[in-house]
């Protein structure tokens, strides 16, 4: 190879080398290096669940039985709590009932006496009214008649103490009374109370009817001043001579009948009042004995309720 050919070869190698360098440079510019920006995923530790043995039928049955027993015991405990609460309320009600019965018993004895006196007044007045139909009564008898007429007007009746009974009526209070004998006796006493009130209202109605009609017979002019607070002495001090407004047979007979009607109702009321006081005394003895209230009623303290 001559020198000229050698130069051409070297020049060609130089050119090829430059072109290759330019091409590589362009590729590096056109295709920049891609950098993976995503962090490497951390390797997660895998936990394997331990092998659990399958429960047998007996184990399931035991667990169910335990749950059932727990629920049942809770239910029983709640019933016991409610039972204790009811017993305490029952005891408190019986203490009040016994106190009310004692108060009523003392009050009824007073009204039995006053009602007996009222019946005596009516009986005597009825006799004088019927006498006046046929004979002219002397002045002393007329004074007595006027006085009895005044005494026949007023009257007080027994108003029962209903503190415990009202509480028993509210929210099914009789359900707290465990002892059927006591519950029945209380209901009977309550009925006696109600009927005695009905009889007292009936007597007042008859009494008022007789009083209004008596204005046709008795002259109220004689009762000015100490208006019908008449006593035997005060009537004797009157200057004017007493007399009846009428001596008519029929008028006096009607008035006598009205007094008799009043007297019959009052006698019935008295009989029921006797029954009621006996019922109250028996009921008080039963409650005091069966609920052990002897010390409570004597000392005013409340002993623990009986279970």
User: Quaternary status of these chains?
Assistant: single chain
The level of helicity is 55-70%
Largest sheet: none
* Total E-strand runs: 0
The shape, in one word, is elongated
Strand content: under 5%
- The chain-level structural class is mainly alpha
pLDDT below 50 for ≥5 consecutive residues: which ranges?
300-307
* Radius of gyration of CA atoms, rounded to a whole number: 55 Å
Let me know the average pLDDT: 79
Give the N-to-C terminal Cα separation: 138 Å
SSE series? HHHHHHHH
Number of discrete domains: 1
How many helical elements? 8
Helices and strands, with pairings:
Layout: H1 3-30, H2 57-132, H3 139-151, H4 163-169, H5 180-214, H6 232-236, H7 249-290, H8 294-299
Helix pairs in contact: 2-3, 2-4, 2-7, 5-7
